Amino acid sequence: MKKTDATRLLGGTTAAAAQAMGITPQAYYQWPEDLPPRLQDRVVAAIARKLLPGALLGDPLPTNKEAA
To answer: Is 43 within 8 Å of 5 (Cβ atoms)?
Structure first.
């Protein structure tokens, strides 16, 4: 996976991609253009967190207070 593809998938900008990954834009800038498997896995995980329901990913069900 290319870094440009990851950027597009994670929001289209470096800032959006970094935020989705939970890192700073400066850290994202340091990524190589050809992402190694460990970074590809992080990109896929960030997309999964964005698109899949939390319960499917192991998040606890919301309490009544959180649902309100």
So the answer is: no
